Amino acid sequence: MAVVLLLSACAPEEPVVRTSPTGTVPATLQRAGNPDQGYRALVNEAYISCGMPTAAWRKTLGPAPPEQRLPGRAPGNEELPYSLTRHRTPAGADLVVSNCLACHASFFNGQLVIGLGNENLDFTEDVSARAEAAGAYVEAEADAAEWKRWVAVLRATAPYTTTDTVGVNPAISATLALLAHRDPKTLAWSDTPLMAPPPPTPAATSVPPWWRMGKKHAMFYNTEGRGDQARIMMLGALLCADEVATVKAIDAYAPDIRAYVTSLKPPRWPFGVEVKLVERGRTVFERTCAACHGTYGESPTYPNLVVDLATIGTDPAMARFAAGGEGDRFSRWFNGSYYGEMAESAPAMGYIAPPLDGVWATAPYLHNGSVPTLELLLDSPRRPAYWTRSFDSNDYDPTTLGWRFRELPHGKAGVEDREERKRIYDTTLPGYSNAGHTFGDALTADERRAVLEYLKTL
Amino acid sequence: MSQNVNWSRHPASWVLAAALVVAGWVLFSHQRPEPPAARDDLSAVLRAWDRETTAGDFPRPASERGQLRFPREHGVHADVPFEVWDTVMRLTSEQGTRWLRVRFLRLAAAARAPDRGSAWAASEFLRAELTLVAGAPAGSAHVVRNSRVALGIAGRASDPPKLWINGDSLAWVRTEASGDQWELVLHESELQARLQLTLATPRVTSGDTDLPGGPWAGYLHPHLAVSGELKTADGARPVLGTGWFTHNWGPVPPVGGQVTFDRWLLQFDQGDALVLVQTRRRDGSAPPSSRAVWIAANGQIRALDRPVAQVKTGSRRPDAWSLITPDGRTRLKVEATTESTDDTATDQGMAVSVRVEGQHDGRPVTGWGVIDVGSP
């Protein structure tokens, strides 16, 4: 008995990996924060602490056009686009670094909407080659050291950040690749992975809007982000943080950023609605959809419901990877790190039914962005297997509620021209399926039109 | 969530290196080049120019994004400070094969006071570089002419496009409205020529490819037909040939920095062509990275999958290279031709004429080309 105790006392502590059940996600206590201070931190602080030397940025990308600038930023940020932040390091390097808005802000109808996921980003190119080439403009010694550090991370993670389709976001596999290259206890960087990295080609992922977080009890499509959300939101710091102290300093203002994120409201539908139709739509919605997605209006309700894969029927790859055992090493890393002290990675084998506030603005639909319009989300037999779109944020169709698209007779196979190929959404590829969520199929055409009208008002 | 910079504001382009290697301008020169006189040291010129034109004088050029339009683009892009027209020709006569490279460079300042005391006080400056390398005994030449743009001395016109220096002694003129027929007139004491150039299809524009780039725009003709007359110390003779033409414009290219660029331009007997750009760290702290595109005879462009280009022999002055792709589709052996075995290296880089043979997509390929090796 004593021997057994001794052995277990000496065995290295393996952080536990739990999966979450499907069904209701319970609320957890969140740290309070100040949304105004959160906004200032979001657009001025260097929580992603490595990037391109400012001198090189000036020569290659250069000052942003006025519509891409944000008012009221800290000095030094005036010429930067909303997605970049100026950062002067203690060693004297002068950098521009990315911020959360690179993915979490986007134009809609000519207006920059903070919190709207950017579904038009092109990650099909290995950016590390460009980052390396930008070295031609790096001269100062402190800048050169930072440039090398940044390029090393981009190079090591390139296979996991390069997608094959425009609009597909590689954030998940990029994050997993970073975990593979960092020690969970010290966060020290290793040029060679310390555990098996994720599969190279990122699975299709769409960027969810931030304003859902006011209602959600867990983060991410598979609700893997449980516990203290402020800390989980600072996962992006892992791109550059080489020690725990760096993340601790960021964690001090993270609750303010979370407070800002949860305070966001969706934009208002800009095109007008048919009031009678809206009322009919509400009735149909409350009968057919509300059990999963909640109710809206004066006193909204939201059930925080994770739906199992058999019921939802959408592409299972993302949920299966995280909760089916393959992703355990990443959850273990998270749970054994500084992040795991207040939060937990506990994925569910299913997807959460999201709040539908402002959903008309968040096309393409489903967690993998496989359905171009809301009309087709509610009419699954008509969804295109192969389609392309302009990736222009002004190309919105207010009738179908989504991006104007062109159905194609073929997928990516056989298309040699890479410009053409990368713009094809091919639902026959693994992770890209547009199946499932058939709850709108049984509606009559009139009912469907009414529900769409109602969704415009959320 | 992790992070990436969104570079999509800038079209991918192979022209960055094309512009950069301008800093390594010594080409196939037979004799050891004379120590560069102040006016001939291009790095110094670019550095000085860059300091003076970074103050935001230039609006973002309209041509930076979107489609290029021809024949308009052959002409001058007055909205940018730097522009280069570069022709590499391989000319054959009964006496053998010669290489001729003719490069015109334009540097401009948008709002510069004409009475600034610097050597380059003129608001626009043209430079022409001619380099002739003989395969056979004699007749090499290397000529550099700098001139500010001024009435009767040097200038440029857009319609029809034309560049000239020293009156008409050095000129590059469009001779046909479609834009694809050009005449090159060279009237220097060392070298005289009148050459008709036909820019053959396909034409590849900077938006078409995925090579590391920056804010440069431009285009390239991987095939060129040349005919005319060449006159050197050992006489005049008719010549026929093939070649490359590139034309790029944008900001003044950097001359210092952490990395340098090599550019390969290869032309295959089968009608295909290849452009490769390799980024190398000056301190060797990371392995070089290469991008390459294969341009089929019909103009179709395909990026090679993770090409690995390596110097095989000659570390300071490379003279043999290999290029392979992990998918096995491309495997090339590249060697310097005898024409360029002389000492052409300077601290500004060098250009090497090469022969190439190997396999691409299961068939044998052979060809020739030029490798511009960036400054060390």
Structural category of chain A is: alpha+beta
Q: What is the CATH homologous superfamily assignment of chain B?
A: AttH-like domain
Q: From the helix content, strand content and strand pairing of chain B, which structural class follows?
A: mainly beta
Please, how many helices of chain A?
18
Spans of chain A of 5+ residues with little confidence (pLDDT < 50)?
Answer: 1-12
Described by strand count, sense and barrel closure, the largest sheet of chain A is: 3 strands, antiparallel
The overall number of domains of chain A is 2
Strand fraction of chain B equals: over 45%
Report the radius of gyration of chain B as a whole number of Å. 20 Å
| CATH architecture label of chain B | Beta Barrel
Largest sheet, spatial ordering of strands of chain A: 1-8-10
Distance between the termini of chain A: 62 Å
Number of domains of chain B: 1
| Spans where pLDDT lies below 50 across 5 or more residues of chain B | 1-39, 54-65, 111-121, 340-347
Order of helices and strands of chain B: HHEEEEEEEEEEEEEEEEEEEEE
Rg from alpha-carbon coordinates of chain A: 22 Å
Largest interface: A-B, 56 and 41 residues
Tell me the CATH topology of chain B: AttH-like fold
Helicity range of chain B: under 10%
Description:
The complex is a heterodimer of chains A (458) and B (376). Chain A contains 18 helices and 15 strands. By secondary structure, chain A is of the alpha+beta class. In chain A, the strands form 6 sheets. Chain A has a 3-stranded antiparallel sheet. In chain A, helix 2 crosses helix 10 and helix 5 packs antiparallel against helix 6. The radius of gyration of chain A is 22 Å and the shape is globular. Chain A starts with a helix and ends with a helix. The relative contact order of chain A is 0.14. Chain B has 376 residues and is mainly beta. Chain B has 2 helices and 21 strands. In chain B, the strands form 2 sheets. In chain B, strands 1, 2, 3, 4, 5, 6, 7, 8, 9, 10, 11 and 12 form a 12-stranded antiparallel sheet that branches. A 9-stranded antiparallel sheet of chain B has the order 16-15-14-13-21-20-19-18-17. The longest helix of chain B has 12 residues. Chain B is globular.
